[in-house]
Amino acid sequence: MIIGHGIDLQDVTAIQKVYEKNNSFLKRVLTSQEEAVFHQLKGKRQMEYLAGRWAAKEAFAKALGTGIGKVTFQDIEVLNNAKGAPYLSKSPFAGRSFVSISHSGQFVQASVILED
């Protein structure tokens, strides 16, 4: 049974501005494993990755019904499987989860479905 669905839309340029202005932003949003992936990427792809993780974590918190605050960005980890599909590798949710991240132009959208 689906118990929650969250979506988030994020402007990649807005994420880039915050990243360039605030040195601690990256460590606040990404786990150490996500950060390792981020540093392997170059240029525009880095910002798309960061914005995608931000959006996926926001979508997760919305699906859970808490929003970011009771659940932090560090409580949620989004990695990619061998085929490149994102999945929640860490979260406070015990059930099944489904994650989708899509990029188009300067925007990234994420959707998370939580199933009990």
UniProtKB/TrEMBL annotation:
Matches recorded under Gene3D superfamilies: 4'-phosphopantetheinyl transferase domain
Superkingdom to which the source organism belongs: Bacteria
E.C. no: 2.7.8.7
A GO term for molecular function: holo-[acyl-carrier-protein] synthase activity
4'-phosphopantetheinyl transferase domain location: 6-97
Primary site of residence: cytoplasm
Keywords: Cytoplasm, Fatty acid biosynthesis, Fatty acid metabolism, Lipid biosynthesis, Lipid metabolism, Magnesium, Metal-binding, Transferase
Root EC class: transferase
Residues at which Mg(2+) binds: D8, E58
Cofactor(s) required, per the database record: Mg(2+)
Localization per record: Cytoplasm
Reactions the enzyme catalyzes: apo-[ACP] + CoA = holo-[ACP] + adenosine 3',5'-bisphosphate + H(+)
Protein task: Transfers the 4'-phosphopantetheine moiety from coenzyme A to a Ser of acyl-carrier-protein.
Family: Belongs to the P-Pant transferase superfamily. AcpS family.
Protein name as catalogued: Holo-[acyl-carrier-protein] synthase
Organism of this sequence: Streptococcus pacificus
Lineage: Bacteria, Bacillati, Bacillota, Bacilli, Lactobacillales
Gene: acpS
